[in-house]
Structures are given as structure tokens and as C-alpha cells.
Known about the structure:
Elements: H1 21-25, E1 27-29, E2 38-41, E3 44-47, E4 65-66, H2 68-74, H3 82-86, E5 90-95, E6 102-103, H4 107-119, H5 129-151, H6 156-172, H7 174-178, H8 186-193, H9 203-215, H10 252-260, H11 263-268, H12 290-317, H13 320-346, H14 357-362, E7 366-367, H15 368-374, E8 377-379, H16 382-388, H17 394-399, H18 408-422, E9 427-429, H19 432-447, H20 450-458
Parallel strand pairs: 1-5, 2-4, 6-7, 8-9
Antiparallel strand pairs: 2-3, 3-5
Amino acid sequence: xxxxxxxxxxxKEAPAPEDSTEDQTMKKIRVAELADHEISIENVxxxxxxxDHPGGDQIKVFGGNDVTVQYKMVHHxxxxxxxxYLSKMKKVGYVTDYExxxxxxxxxxxxxxxEVAKIVKGAKSFGTNGWFFRAAFYVAFHSFWQxxxxxxxxxxxxAILLGISQALIGLNVQHxxxxxxxxxKPWVNELLGYGADFIGGSKYxxxxxxxxxxxxxxxxxxxxxAISAEPMMLFNDYPLGDPRRKWYHRFQAFFFLPxxxxxxxxxxxxxxxxxLQQRGTRETMNWTNQYIKSCIPIGLILRVIYVAMNIVxxxxxxxxxxxxxxxxxxxxxxxxxxxxxxxxxxxFEGADRDPTTEYRKTKEPVDWFKAQVETSSTYGSFIxxxxxxxxxxxxxxxxxxxxxxxxxPYIAPKVREICAKHGVHYAWYxxxxxxxxxxxxxxxxxxxxxxxxxxxxxxxxx
Length: 462
């Protein structure tokens, strides 16, 4: 079982700056003692209860947490003058146990930001007219097949098309919106973000898990995506002899897609909708604040509506067996379209599956920007981007998570160029099947511990 990371490991306490009388009178607490309406960035505590956040109330989801990495990953423009932006929040104290495994503002990061800013101006990094046209088309496409499913009764054809349409909403609409990347207007992102609930998920649980995934990509302990399929499958390449390894993982390359076909089932009937406590990240983040609790009713209402439209309605028109068959087809199609594509992004031969290894050995922070590149892959071009919501550009997406996916095809060549210049490994597959092959290979070799066997052989121990 992973350690409770919310209760920080013992470490040398970070000194709280005391350069003024005001600083000396401010409270000094540990991260675990942050109140619901407080966040910490680096070692400073801010009260966000009355903060009018330009990106909307989404910031309140993170109340009670250290959000240093999350802040830096989405506010790229603040790095030139962070004090100016942070001064807009009310500073109320310091945390004494702040510890960060990542470092920022490296030369690699600065050059990436500088060159990309020449292509995409900060104020124009949101959804383009083309993005909104595609979003409108996918919403209409989904609405039509949802209507057919409910009004005319489910069928095999409707099941396939409804499953595809729900996946398109998940990839192309709610994803950008819940990253705050669709529009500068928070209400637009807020509205489109509920697309997650109309495909069987939950906007708030998604934000909890996905933003944590972005902050700690492939982190062996903190990335909820990395442990989401355990114990059925292993995405993490654990050491030989690790108790999380089971005999059947040696064959996971053969069954990992069938297992992923149950993604919809695990989402729709997940009990965390009752409290919005995302289980995969609960050891890393604290999701017990009042804002999240206030969102539970809307989450429950939308889940009831979804179940009525997609699960109950087939039984009105068909026998139980036929209804279940149609639901199974719809759910499998959606699951494979979503989770099948997700699995490519960070699970492939050559991916850095544990970017903070050196930090745990030496306590030397690792370059967050470099880690994002070396844990992710990019495949295809803008055509794949139109279908996957730009998620084929995972490297670019993880470097600029609050940039609309419509811009990723334009910045990808420059990102590759800068990575080559700095010796940063950039995984790019011209065709999606090449990424699939790399993923199947990784699942086979990691499941059987073959990477570790080879390492031991090189050391003369096997």
C-alpha cells in the first residue's frame, strides 16, 4: 500500500522567511494543517475565500493543499513576475514542511516558453474558432445519437454511435474546458466541463485526478492514473519482488485492452460520486474541503440523469438480455476509445516511468519541464488532433496544459527542435499504430519485469 503522502515524510523543515514584523506575526503551520479556504504555494499560505480568481472558482477545488506544482504548470506567464500575481491573494502565513521534488525556471523551460510565445500569444492561447466549431459539431453529434437511443430505443447501431459520440465529448470538449483552456470566460469552461458528467464521469472527480496526474506525471506514488488499473494491471514498472507484482501480470499485454473496456463501468458505478473523494489521489491531495462538498448535489443529480438516459431507457424498449447487450456494446466502445488512447500517452517503451527516482536518492529536484517531455509521447498530426482533441500531442499538452489543444500542431515542431537542442528525449510516432506497438511492448516487458532482468544482467547478477 502506498504511504500516506498527505502526511509529509519527515524532512528538514523549510525556514519561514522573517524579513518584516508582518512576517513574524503570521502563523506557521504544516501542509496538513491548511484550512479549507487556504492553499500554499512554495512555503507561503494564501487565503482564497474572497479571492476573485480570473479562471473562476475552480481554484477552490484545491483548498487545503499545497499547489506549488499546479500553480506553476498552468500559469506560465507568471514566471517573469510571480510576486506581482501572487500579491493579489491574501497572504496569511507560512508552511514549515514545504518540500518539492521538482525545479522550475531552468534554461530548457525558459527557452520552450520563449519560443512558443512567439507562435501563440498568451491572450490567444484559448480555443480558436475552429475549436469551437468542432466542439459544437461533437455536441450536436452526441445529442442526436443520445436522442435516438432514448426516443427510438437502443440498438446495436445506436450503441456503437453513442459510444463513439460520448468518447468524442470526453476527448474534444470537456477536456479543454476542465483545463480552463477552452475560453477566457470561466463560465464557458464551467459549462462545457460538465460534458464529463454527460458521458458517465464527474467533472469534479476528473479535475481531482487529472490535475494531479499532470502535476506528478508517472510519479510512482502520486500519479493516480499510474495506479488506476491495479491490481488487474500494472502501469508502473515496479522492482522485481515488489508485492504489487502478481503472476498474471506477465500476460497483461494480452488482456490489457479487454480490461480497459470496463473503464465506463468503473466510472459510472464508482461510489466516489457520493463524496467526490477521488480515491487514486487521496493519499497525495486533500479533497475534504467545503467547496467540494457543496458540489456533491449537482454531481449526484447529473449522475441520476445519465443513468436514466443511458441505462434505464433500454429496458423500456427491450428485454433485460437485449438491453444489457446494447449497454455493454455502448460502454465498451466508449471505454476503448477513451482509455485505449489514454494508455498510449505515458506507457510505452522508452518512457520515463519514475522521473523523481534521483530526487529520492540525492534530494536534488528534477526539471519538471524535462520530466513532462520524457514521460509523454506524441503521435500523428493535426488530423489525429481533430479526432482526439489534441491528446495525440501529449508532450505539448503536458508542457502547456492550459493552452487549447487547437494550438498543439503549430507548436510541436518547435518543441521537438528545442528538445533535441537540450538533449531531452522526445517520443514522436508519425503513425498511431507505432505508438500502440510501443505500448503493447511496454505492457509485456513491464508486466514480466523484463526491464529489471536486463538491468541485473548488465550488472552480472542474472
